[in-house]
Amino acid sequence: MTKKVLVGLSGGVDSAVCVKKLADEGFEVIGLYLDMKNCDTEAPLLIEDASYENDDIKSAFQCAETYGIKLYKFGCAKAFDSIVKEDFVREYSRGRTPNPCIVCNRLVKFASLLKCADMLGCDLIATGHYAKIGYFETTGRYYVEMGEDAKKEQSYMLWNLTQEQLSRLLFPLGDSVKSDNFETARKDELIAAQRGESLDICFIPKDDNYADFIERRIGRFPEGDFISPDGKVCGKHKGIIRYTVGQRKGLGIALGEPVFVKKIDGEKNLIYLARSGEEYMDELSVSGLNFVGMLPTDNYEGELSVKIRYAAKPVPAKVVIKGDKCTVTFPESVRAATPGQSAVFYEGNKVMFGGFID
């Protein structure tokens, strides 16, 4: 019996080629555009004419027509605003640096895809992420695995998904590389192949910045003190949301030596600076754990590889879980682990669990 797959179509190259690959493999494919900006709907709505829609939907619709599938739209703007945007504002207000995609993937994007899949009678869901899904027979755990394209692989962004989401999820691009998929889209004359790739925060306009976005929502942040490496007040910052741990440029501080942001104290409205070379650390704490390939536990000690930022390579570390906290000790110091960002733990290429850096 042919399985039905609901594909999240964004209007970009990756999700478009995802449709083609699944159709070629014999799946019955349906497309879904998630509108996280403009509207809310109780159920997916069939799009029969995209001429009045935005450019993303027009591109997704042209993909659907090219490959002979139906395209639906589901509005989830309120959920995106109350969950993703509010978390983004709240984290920056605490002096942390969030990654909104981590929150969105679990609570909005894949949650909405599953909801609509059930409404449309689809067995599975799929997206154009460069990653793979695996399954441990011995434990019954689904896991995310690194994709083959080293430059584009996205397993780091997917550590927070639930077992229910992973059990019904396909990543058709996991074994492919971006350049080949772009060439496929170009040959099939898809609009998506002519569009630029979006790498910025999706809800911050290109001519805007995240700090101004936050202040429009909750008001202006007060100035406060910079604290020098010697523990003395050495200047005024322009509001803690305008800085992030590890930042060197744009501080407006002249101390006669290079300095960087080492710590942001949201409660006291202070930013602590440190000298060059002091940004390296041997240990960090992680909370908000989500177990993927590893069985959930509150008592673990072992060796795993850890990524502390999207573009970083996994590095070996000693990992200790006690209760709902994880302590990570590195044999070689790592640079500027940033509170609010994710730490993702791997065994080989497989994601075992992840959490947020304290």
Helix content: 10-25%
The succession of helices and strands, N to C, reads EHEEHEHHEEEHEHHEEEEEEEEEE
For the largest beta-sheet, the strand count, sense and barrel status come to: 6 strands, mixed
Q: What distance lies between the first and last C-alpha atoms, to the nearest angstrom? A: 48 Å
Structural class category? alpha/beta
- Percent of residues in β-strands: 25-35%
Individual helix count: 7
- Oligomeric category: single chain
What does this structure look like?
It is a single chain. This protein has 358 residues and is of the alpha/beta class. The chain has 7 helices and 18 strands. A 6-stranded mixed beta sheet has the order 3-4-2-1-5-8, sandwiched between helices. A 6-stranded antiparallel β-barrel has the order 13-16-15-14-17-18. Strands 10-9-12-11 form a 4-stranded mixed beta sheet, with no helix packed on it. Strand 6 (131-136) and strand 7 form a beta hairpin. The longest helix is centred in the N-terminal third of the chain and has 20 residues, at 100-119.
